[in-house]
Design goal:
Length: 339
């Protein structure tokens, strides 16, 4: 941009990209002298945009955190990325309770897009299709989400009001380890200080969160996402299933992900070591919990790997019946009732 106003806006965009920019660097990018850069900075400050001057050998200018969001300068690609992120987040349920916030943010960005970029975006949205159906998700309150996230970062306990799946309400003190987004929902994993045990809570069921004094130390080697998935795989469902499957970890995980089953070495019962060759075929023990068993026979058939059912015996009968049905259909030359 050759006009002074355009160069001031370009300066703002450069500062918003992060870090400290030297006067020489800014002057080179804007095609002006150093004193002109200083004049442009003064104009930004007059607009209440918090620009800081950094002294020293590597000094220059940077944006300081302000009490309000300064005007954002987005390139065409950045604006497209933000809009697609809003669309994908709404489809996946990864939004907050303020559902209109995403819509108004998208509307503001689209309103200032150049016409050619807006036309290209509209063409993309018309051509775009999703393989999954949009779901109706119970989304968390933004204040609760941010309060819990701050407590995770600073290792502070939080008092929460929680409603479980049986509609029972309770007040709990939680030591939050981490926030996990899984299957369109937000979860927080941590220790329930009242009972001294680790628990997982859905964030949309937390009505209020308040940071408490004090601090806590999370367990060593903590992986909140893995804890969440392990909790799903060991949930107290009706059937406890134990299998031995011969194959690679990747082959088995393709049908039985970590949120469904626990994968162990069959010979010693320990989790596969991090250094073990995951591409090597071997016998692995698979443990999972299920409310129903009828979905397992076709899944085991789709694995196309040798397997042994250790328990329950009912699953063996279902697998045999499934195999008989498949074999019977394969032997038919014509559909029933045709001549």
């Amino acid at each position: 941009m050759s006009r002074p106003t355009g160069r001031v806006l370009t300066l703002l965009e450069l500062l918003q990209s992060g870090g400290t920019r030297t006067v020489a660097e800014l002057a080179d990018r804007l095609g002006v002298e150093g004193r002109t850069v200083r004049r442009y900075v003064d104009q930004l400050i007059d607009l209440d945009i918090p620009v800081e001057s950094v002294r020293g050998r590597y000094g220059g200018y940077r944006l300081a955190p302000g009490y309000r969001l300064p005007p954002l300068m987005l390139s065409d690609d950045e604006a497209l990325a933000v809009l697609l992120g809003l669309i994908a987040g709404r489809r996946a349920g990864l939004t907050t309770a303020q559902l209109t916030a995403g819509e108004t943010a998208a509307a503001k960005i689209r309103r200032v897009l150049p016409k050619h970029t807006a036309r290209r975006l509209d063409a993309l949205l018309e051509a775009l299709a999703f393989t999954d159906r949009p779901g109706e998700f119970d989304t968390p309150d933004a204040g609760v989400l941010l309060t819990v996230a701050d407590a995770v970062r600073h290792r502070r306990p939080v008092a929460v009001r929680y409603t479980d799946r049986e509609a029972r309400r309770s007040e709990r003190t939680l030591h939050p380890y981490g926030i996990v987004a899984h299957a369109g929902r937000w979860y927080v994993t941590g220790k329930d200080a009242g009972i001294g045990e680790d628990r997982t809570f859905r964030l949309d069921r937390i009505a209020d969160a308040r940071t408490l004094p004090g601090s806590f130390e999370p367990p060593a080697g903590l992986d909140p996402a893995q804890r969440l998935l392990s909790g799903f795989a060991t949930a107290d469902y009706r059937h406890a299933v134990t299998l031995r499957i011969h194959g690679t970890a990747e082959q088995i995980r393709a049908r039985l992900p970590a949120g469904v089953a626990i994968l162990q070495e069959a010979e010693d019962g320990h989790e596969p070591a991090a250094g073990r060759d995951r591409a090597a075929e071997r016998w692995l023990r698979v443990e999972l919990r299920a409310e129903r068993l009828d979905w397992l026979p076709p899944l085991l058939a789709s694995l196309d790997r040798p397997f042994v059912i250790e328990r329950p015996g009912e699953l063996r009968d279902l697998v045999v019946a499934h195999a008989d049905r498949v074999a019977s259909c394969a032997r038919r030359a014509e559909p029933p009732g045709t001549s």
